[in-house]
Specification:
Shape: globular
Strand order of the largest sheet: 3-2-1-4-5-6
Distance between the termini: 11 Å
Order of helices and strands: EEEHEEE
Largest sheet: 6 strands, mixed
Radius of gyration: 12 Å
Length: 99
């Protein structure tokens, strides 16, 4: 079963949702990007794939939603499941393919 990881990242005056190195959505606000990423991940999960959403900021990379664990409303509450300091994730790139 494939794992689909969606990244929400800030751009220059906008927010991006990316997966596997591809831009999937380009929106104006962080909450729109989180909502879009969650809907995409939920769709993949409903098709039998594992899926989650990561929020990348300057300081951390946070796992904010996981299919089968969180409800669709959960990202809006910004539950932090995993928060890593920026320096400890130098090997992680927001557009990398999930293993």
């Amino acid at each position: 079963m494939a794992h689909n990881r969606y990244f929400v990242v800030a751009g220059a005056g906008h927010w991006l949702v990316t997966t596997e190195g591809r831009s999937m959505a380009h929106v104006a606000t962080q909450s729109e990007a989180i909502n879009s990423a969650t809907v995409m991940a939920d769709l993949m999960g409903s098709m039998g794939h594992s899926a989650d959403v990561m929020l990348a900021t300057d300081e951390t990379l946070d796992l904010i939603w996981t299919y089968g664990v969180d409800s669709l409303a959960m990202p809006l509450a910004r539950r932090r499941l995993k928060s890593l300091p920026r320096g400890s994730r130098s090997h992680v790139r927001p557009a990398q393919r999930a293993l």
